[in-house]
Amino acid sequence: MKNRKFLDLFNLADDKYITESDPSRPLPKRKRFNLTAILASVCCLLLILNLTLLIPLLIKRDGGGISEVADSTQNTNLNYIKNPSSVTDSDNKNNVNLVGNNEVIKVLETLFNSPTTPGSTPGINDSVENESNKDETLEEAEDSILGDLSADINDNQVEGISEGDIAKKSDKFVYYLHNYSLYVYSINKSKSKLECMLPLTGYTENLTSYFEELNINRDKMEETECNWEMFLSSDYSTLTIIIKSSFIPLTALVNFDVSHSPTVELKDFKIISGDYVSSRVVNGEMLLFTSYRIYSGFDKENPLTYMPFFTTQEATYLAQNIYFPSIISNSDYIMVTRLDSKGLTVKESSAYLSYSDDLYVSENNIFLTRNFNENGPKTEIAVIGYGSALFQNKGTVKINGYLKDQYSLDEYKGILRAVTTSYTERDRSSASLFLIDLNKMEIVSSVLNFAPEGETVRSVRFDKEYAYVCTAVLLTDPVFFFNLSDVNNITYTDTGNIVGFSSSLINLGNGYVVGIGVGSSSNTLKIEVYTEENESVESVCAFESPLTYYPDEYKSYYIDRENQLIGIPIRVYTDGLYSNRYLLLKFTGETLETVLNQGISTDSKSRVRGFLQDKYYYVVSSGGIYAFDISESIVFPKDSTSSTEPEDYIPTRDPSLPAW
Amino acid sequence: MDDSRIIELFFERNEDALKFTEEKYSRYCFFVANNILNSKEDTEECVNDMLLRLWNSIPPAKPHNLKAFLGKITRNLALDKYDKITAQKRSGNKDLVFDELSECIPDISSEINAVEQLSLKIAFNKFLASLKEEKRIIFMQRYWYLSSVKDIADRHGLSENNVKITLLRLRAKLKKFLEKEGIKI
């Protein structure tokens, strides 16, 4: 109490002192900072000069509005790095260069060896440099396809396209990333347990060294939560972990041989510039998206401080192609790197300046977006075909408003559909739908400002020829249902205002869509099922839980369309205490029934994953693995109020965590 | 969008106000709350609660400095939440701050009334005004923002030891100053 009152004393401080001491503000001027300011100004000027003087010379304009700089870097300050026109393994051998080669190799070797310190990394094979061993594992990998869909626990947006996640599973093991470590749990009903824990921190430490060796100076970046992700190959033999450094804009891809799980052996690695953003695996090829920001203090003599790059064990390469929009709206690159499945060979790499907002990957195309202001918020979408051997720039299109997330975009039969929060003539928010012909890159149809003024888009879900859109002001929403089967005659209807709103709309199959969001208050969880009937959208049933928080992370939701199951980690406030729980609901066609509502241990609800296997429901979190026999619940739903622990509740968890 | 327009939107009961506030200040509020709670999840909840509290506060309140207003709401919510959490366990940066404060400043004997509160506010701000800018910033960053000593040292280009000594002296100076002003806390 005493101490709280002293902290409250500081609440009496004048606003000016609070604002003055905001840590994100620049420090007061001191002599040594004046010099820094001058240097920063000079660097800024250099950046502006580079952008204004060099770009016009380098840009080759195309019809779509994206301009390309290709093979021109020799004419600029970048000429001491050769820019390969096409990068394959054989090309790499011919283009070995250039940047402090010995130093880089030295650091890479350190990186390569880092997790093999005896005793510190159980499960790692110390002899990764043994050529015979390496060849063998690579040969084994030839038959495998990276990113098998059966390994996915998360619900992917596009059928057939796997998204990276913190958890992947084989038939016998579940792999889980937590606290800079890989956890391997066996999946064996009530005997499920932690088999192996592999610390991976050595990689981030060595990424930092690597960054320093490249002579890229930058202030320490704010530490971010570990958001590493991974993929598992179709034969469950190769686990590819995408590791992001906390402090520096570098991403490492590390392949592990897990064919003898729970033993895990290091196979190969690759370093890509930029912070990890997202990834997809399509037909065994990985598309990796990283972001890379240019700062005003970049080193003109060192292209690696202002050009995106990737590195192999032999050399470091700039991105093959760099694209600029006609007007640069920010200094963030999004780097798109395509890698093959048999290791980590970079097949292609392109960077897009300013396209740093939402991204969506369809079966044929990559869609990168950027927001800008031109008489109100606008979004420009760059379309990149990836079906052929090389990325194909198809052009750009501009639409009014801004997107909520990747689910606001959808490609279907050559038409891109997009839903934005747009603004009316009175500068009030609303929502608009656009249909874009991808052959012509033209808007062919739209429904402008269909939502009541003041509302914004909260969630979107496209389902073939239909679209569901939830808009809301604060705590009331309509859900709109669009019929997009006739491009020239879009029809729509809505539920009318209902309490709460859905922050995620997910197709549940059989014509149903489930909305996950809030109910009558911002801390009430509401899960509601909708269906379209006679050209009208109806609420079928809803589940509500007061004083309950849920994660925004869509990958933490378990959606089982076959068994009509919806799983979600929650945090419940009761009797003055917060507790983490896992909620599993079954949709019967008329009601949502509770199958599980169990206490779990986790340090973050967004990092909990659940999945069904052999009539057992498994929950994996930072607290361990839990196995629940739900065979009876699936066939004969339990009493919805039941929340007792079943007999086979598995308390397998990290012993370093506090008690539940 | 400037703050005065955002405040106007609150007065118009236009919920875009929340959206613009979130866009502009959520990072700042996240920083304030996270320094206290040291948990992304609790911090997110705290920032969400802050928006609701803000919606209910403006009107009638019409803050001159929206950022500081938000910071105060967020900080108080985070401190409340922290107190609830620490009913179960003690952790995080705030415990260390408590330890530091208890070293130098005497206990509060009783609840203070509005006049005493005003006197305290005037004296406290007088004390802050008397400090050199850099020291004041260090002091506020430690005890208002609850930044760690290491972060402050990194930010100011000082050693951790240097920051600790500065804080120790400032705490003693505050105690002496308040006593001199006749304020017994």
Q: Would you write up a description of this structure?
A:
- The complex is a heterodimer of chains A (660) and B (185).
- In chain A, helix 5 (101-113) packs antiparallel against helix 7.
- The longest helix of chain A is centred in the first third of the chain and has 28 residues, at 31-58.
- Chain A has 8 helices and 44 strands.
- Chain A is mostly beta strands and 660 residues long.
- Chain B has 185 residues and is mainly α.
- Chain B has 9 helices and no strands.
- Chain B has helices at 3-11, 16-37, 40-57, 66-85, 93-104, 114-130, 133-143, 149-156, 160-180.
- Chain B is globular and about 45 Å long.
- Mean pLDDT of chain B is 78; it is low at 103-110.
- The chains are: A mainly beta (660), B mainly alpha (185).
- At the A-B interface, helix 1 and helix 2 of A face helix 2, helix 3, helix 4, helix 5 and helix 6 of B.
Key terms:
heterodimer, A: 660 residues, mainly beta, 8-stranded mixed beta sheet, 6-stranded antiparallel beta sheet, 8 helices, disordered C terminus, B: 185 residues, mainly alpha, 9 helices
Q: Structural class of the helix and strand makeup of chain B? A: mainly alpha
Strand order of the largest sheet of chain A: 1-2-16-18-17-13-12-3
Largest interface: A-B, 48 and 63 residues
Mean pLDDT across every amino acid position of chain A: 72
Proportion of residues in β-strands of chain B: under 5%
How far apart lie the N and C ends of chain A?
27 Å
Sheet with the most strands, sense and barrel status of chain A: 8 strands, mixed
Low-confidence stretches of chain A: 30-143, 215-225, 636-660
Radius of gyration of chain B (Å): 18 Å
Q: What structural category characterises the helix and strand content of chain A? A: mainly beta
Distance from first to last alpha carbon of chain B: 42 Å
Order of helices and strands of chain B: HHHHHHHHH
Query: Tally of extended strands of chain A?
Result: 44
- What global shape of chain B is seen? globular
E-strand count of chain B: 0
Kindly state the percentage of residues in helix of chain A: 10-25%
Provide a count of the helices of chain A. Answer: 8
Oligomeric state of the chains in view: heterodimer
**Overall pLDDT score of chain B:** 78
What integer value in Å does the Rg of chain A equal? 26 Å
Number of helices of chain B: 9
